[in-house]
């Protein structure tokens, strides 16, 4: 996924934020990782490019990008937050707790759950990126 498919710089400026070289480097590093990436992995990649960049700068930029909807974040159950460039269409993942396999699922499946929650509790779920943890079929079924 590339951040060049959207006008990230325009979105930052429209929200009143400067487009700094560090913010562009962080977006580039996130894209280069190609999917769900931890703060540590992004920071490590950035250190190879620019050793002067501070971890707190990376954290603050990622937090800003999430707030602006440029990046999505999720916890896959291991206690670490993972980041990914936001897509135009919401998407979600099933994550196996045993083998770590991830499977992308359609937003429609989550919408059904969100509608059921709204009907039963009057709570409106707003999410465009979920990671649901469990055990995949390969780990659940006995190996033959």
How would you describe what is shown here?
The structure is a single chain. The protein is an alpha+beta fold. It has two domains: 3-85, Winged helix-like DNA-binding domain superfamily/Winged helix DNA-binding domain (Arc Repressor Mutant, subunit A); 92-140, Ferric-uptake regulator, C-terminal dimerisarion domain (Dna Ligase, domain 1), CATH 3.30.1490.190. Helix content is 44%, strand content 17%. It has six helices and six strands. A three-stranded antiparallel sheet has the order 1-3-2. β2 and β3 (81-85) form a beta hairpin. The N and C termini lie far apart (37 Å).
Summed up:
By secondary structure, this protein is of the alpha+beta class. Helix content is 44%, strand content 17%.
Q: Termini distance?
A: 37 Å
- Pattern of helices and strands: HHEHHEEEEHEH
CATH class of the largest domain: Mainly Alpha
CATH topology of the largest domain: Arc Repressor Mutant, subunit A
Q: Count the E strands.
A: 6
CATH A-level architecture of the largest domain: Orthogonal Bundle
Q: What is the typical, i.e. mean, pLDDT? A: 85
Tell me the name of the CATH homologous superfamily of the largest domain.
Winged helix-like DNA-binding domain superfamily/Winged helix DNA-binding domain
What's the tally of helices? 6
